[in-house]
Design goal:
Length: 187
């Protein structure tokens, strides 16, 4: 037997767990995009995400994007760097950046849904599967599930409300305990 075969630390053990992270952001399209342009964007994202082992969901409604991506820190760093420098959009705002216990959209290098002004999908082939993934999504802290579901259902009109809710939630979490209970520090 070789030393490697005698080493109990490598034989019969599962590989070490992979640290996974998620990023959720919103942005504004530089111009309104056609369905064909969005499908081309999705195909490019799927190829890049596959190479970097990043998975996620892209939502588009009336010139607004919301995207959730998940993967290793290195994979996300590469993919998000490309996303942020893409001239198809501007005003990228991070809504969430956190570690996750497991992938929520592990089935897709990049699922996509285009929502019209009435909340109707123009790419409904995956709708039931994505909604199932959203329903089962973990909800640590301020919930990506709620933000994605609201955008899914109400389109770009949910972005301002999501930003307001996010800032109110952060303010509540950052406020000193005595302020949160309704007591003022100077009283």
């Amino acid at each position: 037997m070789t030393d490697a075969e005698n080493d109990d630390t490598t034989r019969g053990q599962a590989p070490p767990p992979v640290d996974l992270y998620a990023i959720l952001y919103v942005s504004t399209a530089a111009r309104l995009l056609s369905l064909a342009e969005l499908r081309h964007l999705q195909a490019r994202a799927q190829a890049r995400n596959h190479d970097e082992q990043v998975t996620g969901l892209l939502l588009y409604a009336g010139g607004a994007f919301m995207q959730y991506i998940e993967g290793t820190a290195a994979g996300l760093s590469t993919v998000y760097g490309v996303i942020k420098s893409d001239p198809l959009h501007y005003g990228v705002i991070d809504l969430l950046r956190q570690p996750i216990g497991q992938r929520q959209f592990g089935h897709w290098a990049m699922a996509m849904r285009v929502v019209d002004e009435c909340g109707q999908s123009q790419t409904s082939g995956q709708d039931a599967l994505v909604m199932d993934s959203l329903a089962r999504m973990e909800q640590p802290g301020f919930g990506a599930r709620d933000l994605l579901t609201n955008f899914w259902q109400r389109g770009r009109h949910s972005v301002a409300a999501a930003l307001f809710d996010l800032s109110a939630d952060r303010a509540r979490r950052l406020a000193p305990t005595h302020v949160r209970r309704g007591h003022q520090a100077w009283a």
